[in-house]
C-alpha cells in the first residue's frame, strides 16, 4: 500500500510540473535524430548533469514520462486511414530508412487544394502553405538524447513488424499519441521473442 | 521496483526544490519557423553525390555523403529552419582515375570549408579604411551594380587604365571563362599566384621532355624510387594518386618490394617512409643526380646516349660527365662516394627505377639545373614513358571555347605574375591598374615581404574579391562578392597528373547554397552580359552550367568512360560519374616544343640570401601536412590533427637538430627567434633528430593575421622572413634559399600530442 | 558462426599521412578540443599515428604506426567497469554503452594502449559546423568515456543494406572510415572468422605482430611489420 501511495504522490508531482510547460516546450530530442544531434543533445546549457539539463528532465527520462505535445493542427489520422490511405503513404521513410518522416505541407496540399477546404483546420494548413512555411508539428515519439538510442525504421518494417506494434492502432486515433513507453523492456521483449540482436551496440551508440 | 519507487518518492520531494530550474527549461518562444524545403530527400538516408576536390591542385574526385537535415536560413528577412541536403562526409570518388576512392586529410577536412563559421554569407562593401576589415552587408543587385559601374569604363577601347585578375593557377573552363572575360578589357592581366607553384619543374620538363607539365609516376611498378626533396606522399603534385601507387610498390606485388630513398636535408612526411635518408647539402641535389649519372655511364651500366635529348641541357653529358666523379660530388653534397656508387648500381640493376624531384631542391637559385639533372638521370635510366617510370597524363586542354583573339597588348600581359603586377601598379606602366579582381589567391600572406605586395595592392583604386573568407589579401577589397563553396558549385578541373588517361573532373553542385552567396563564374557571366560589347560577345552563356555543357558534349565522340546515344544522355552520365576520362588515344593539347634555348644550363653554385657568418643556418619552410601553403589553416580538424613528426597541434614551431640546439642553449619548447636579413619571427623549438645540423625548418601555414577565428593570430609565418632570391631562368622564387640565425628568447609554449610509443597524452611544455 | 571483426595495418604501406585521423573525426562526431584543452591533454583522437625516432644524424630512421583501439579479445577495460558500460559483444567488439557510463575512467586506466578517452567538457561546434555531424552517431556528453567502435554504424548500415537486398555481406563491404580513406591501402578490415576474407589472409602473414602481445590482451588488430 505504501508503495502505491508513494507512486501516486510522486507520479502526480512529476506530471503536474511537466504539464505546466508541456505545451511550450520542444522535445529535447527525437526519434533517430529527427533534429540534428547538436540541437538534440542540448549542447548549450548543460546544468543539472551533462546528459540532462535539469533535474526535471532527468526525472522525466528516468520515469519514461513524455509530455503529450500540443499539435498546431488537430490532424485526424482516423479519417485519412478510413479513406484508404496507408501509413507509408505519408510516412514513406519508414520503409526506406531510419526515419518515418512527416510529409511536407506541399504534400498535404496536393489533396487539400480541393478537399475539405472549408474545414478550419484545413484552412490553417492552407495558410501555412501560403506563407511558405511547414506546419510546426511536434514530435510524439522520441528518445532522450542521453539514451544514445539509434533506431532505424526500415529493418523493422522489412521484418514485418506492424506499425501498430509501437504506435498503437492509429486508425482509431485522431491526433497521434505516444502509445508505448519505448523503453528497453518494450524493445527487448520483442527482440528476444523474435530472436534478433539484443546486443547493446545494435541500438545504443 | 523497490528501488524505483524509493527513487520516485525522493524525486518528487526534490522536485519541489528544483521548481525554478524546471520552469526555465521550457524556453518558450524559441521555436524557429520551418520553411518549405525545395528538394526532397528520404530522411536519414544517405545519397552519395559526386564533386571535385578544390583543396589542392590534384583535382581528385569526391563522393559527398548527403543526408537531409535542418539548416538555419534567413528567408525574406525572417530566420528559420529548412530541410536541406547536408554534406556529412567527404570520401574519394571510387571511379575517379586519380584518387580511386581515396582522399587525404586536407581533402576530407574540406567539409569545414562549406560549414566554416567564418564564411562570408553576403556581399560586403567596405566602410572603414582599407584593410581595417570593416564592412557592411549589401544586396547582390547593389554589389553587382557597383562592380559594373567600376569595370564599365575599363572595358571601353579608350580606357586609360587596365584591369587585373588575381587567381591561383586555374585550369579547365574556369580559366577559359576568366580569360574570355578579360579579353574584353584592353591591356588586362590574368595574374596567377601560388606559393608552391612548381614553375621550375614545368620549365625543366618542357626542355627535357617537351611537356610543360608535372609528371605522373607509375610507382606501382617501380623497383627503386629515388626522390630528391619531393614530398610526394604528403603535399606535392598528386599525393593521393602517388600514395595509392606507393602502397602497391611496397606490398602490392608478390615477391617484390620496391625500395625508396629520399634525399633532403630534413626528413619530411614522405622522407619518413624511406628506407634510406640522405641529407645532401641544400642546393646540391642536381650535383648528386649527376654524380649518379656519372657512375652509371663510367661503369657502363647505361650509355650516355640513352638519355636522348634530355641529356643535351647538361654540359659534359655526352662526355660522361667527367666533372662529376663521386669523390668530387661527395665533397660538395656531403654524400659519401660509396653511397653515390651504391645508389647508381641499385638504380641500374633493379629497373624499373625512377627519380623524382620537387619542392625545396627546385626552390634554389640553381633549381632549373637541378630539375634538368634529375630529368636527364631519369632519361638515362630509361624510365621516361615506361612502366614503373614517369609519364605525362594526356591533357585535353583544348575543349571548350576557343581562346579569345588577343590584341597585342593582351598577348603580352595575359599571364602575369605577382611581381610584375606589383611593378605595374607602382609605375603605372604600361597602363595604370584601374581595378583588381581577386579570386582565392592570397599573396599578401604568402609572398616575401620585400615584394611589397600589400603596399602595391592598396594603391589600386578599386579592388573586388570573390573570396569566401576575409584573408590578408581579400581584406583589402572595397567590395566582396562571396563565391559558393565548391560543394555548392558547378566544379570542373583538368588534373595535370596522377592518371594514365586524360581526365576531366566535373560535377554539379552537391549541395544547395547555405548562404546568400553566388557562384563566381555565374557572377562573371552576369557581369559580362551587363557590360555588353566584346566581353558579352566572348561569353554568350547565361549560366556556367550551359558553358560547361557546351564544352563537354563534343567529348561524346571520343573514346571515353561514358557511352551515350545522345548529347543529353552523355551530359547526364558525365554529371553522375563526376567527370570524363579517356579510354583510348585522344587529340591532346599540343605539347609545348622546346624553344628559346639551345645552350645547356650552367651548373651554378646555389646562392643564398644572407651572409653565412651572420646567418649560419639554411632556412627551410616546408608545406605542412595540415595546411599546405596556409589556405587550410582555418579548418579546426586540421588545426587539431597532430603533426606526424613533431606531434604539434594548434601552432607552429621551428625544427632544430638536437646538437645545434644544445650548442645554442635551446631546449624543446623554448621560444626562439629566427632572424633573416628580411625579418624576424618567434616560435617554439622542436628538437628533431631528422634534420641536418645546419638547417632549421618551419612549417608553412600558420601566422595568419586575418583568416577567421581558428587561424588568426596563431603561430608564425615563415614567408614573412624570406628573401627574394629567384631562380634566374624562370623567375621563380627560391623560397629555400634564405639563411637565418637562431637564438633563444625564453620559455615557450608548445601544444604537443605526445605519442612516444604507446604513451598518449598531450602535454604543454612550460619552462 | 557470428562475425569477428578485425583489422590489419600494414606498416610497410603506411605513409603517416593521417587521412585516417581526419576521417575518424568526421565519421564519429569527435569534437575539436581547441588549443587550451588540447594542451591539457584533452584532445580526442580515436586513432592516432605514433612516431618514434631511431638512430642519430645522419643515420636516422622514423617509424610510425596508426593506433586505434585494439579491440582486444581479453580486454582489460571490460572487467574493471562497475556499470558494465564497457563490454564485449558477440562480434568481438569492445563496445562502450555511453548511457551506462558514469565516468569512473577505470577503463582508461586499465587500457595498455591508451585507446580510451574521457570527455572532459561538453562538446560544442561553432555554428554552422554542427551541420557536418553524422546523424548515425550520437554526441557523447561530458563525463562519458568514448573510444573507437570500428565504426560499428557503418557495419550496421552495410548489413541492413545486404539484408534488404537478401544477400550475404561481401568481404570488404564494411570498412571503418579510417580504412575507407587510407590512400596507400595500408588498412584492411573484415571478418576474421571468414578464412577467405582479405583480413584473415593478411593477419596470417609472417610479418604479422600484435601490439603488446605479451600482456595477453589478444588484440584483433594485426600490424604487418615494415620490411626495412
Structure in words:
The complex is a heterotrimer of chains A (205), B (767) and C (228). By secondary structure, chain A is mainly α. Chain A contains twelve helices and no strands. Chain A has helices spanning 2-22, 37-40, 55-62, 77-82, 87-90, 93-96, 105-112, 120-130, 153-158, 163-167, 184-193, 200-203. Chain B is of the alpha/beta class. Chain B is 27% helix and 20% strand. In chain B, helix 9 (285-298) packs parallel to helix 12 (367-381). The model of chain C has no long low-confidence stretch (mean pLDDT 94). The longest helix of chain C has 13 residues, at 152-164. In chain C, 57% of the residues are buried. Helices cover 19% and strands 19% of the residues of chain C. Chain C is an alpha+beta fold and 228 residues long. Chain C has one domain: Alpha-Beta Plaits (2-Layer Sandwich). Classes of the chains: A mainly alpha (205), B alpha/beta (767), C alpha+beta (228).
SS strand fraction of chain A: under 5%
Multimeric organization: heterotrimer
Mean pLDDT of chain A: 79
The radius of gyration over CA of chain B amounts to 28 Å
Q: Tell the overall outline of chain A.
A: globular
Count of strand segments of chain B:
30
In brief, what are we looking at here?
The complex is a heterotrimer of chains A (205), B (767) and C (228). By secondary structure, chain A is mainly alpha-helical. Chain A has helices at residues 2-22, 37-40, 55-62, 77-82, 87-90, 93-96, 105-112, 120-130, 153-158, 163-167, 184-193, 200-203.
Give a quick set of tags describing it.
heterotrimer; B: alpha/beta; N-terminal domain of TfIIb; Rossmann fold; Dimethylsulfoxide Reductase, domain 2; 4 domains; six-stranded mixed beta sheet; 20% strand; disordered C terminus; C: 228 residues; four-stranded mixed beta sheet; two-stranded antiparallel ribbon; 10 strands; 19% helix; globular
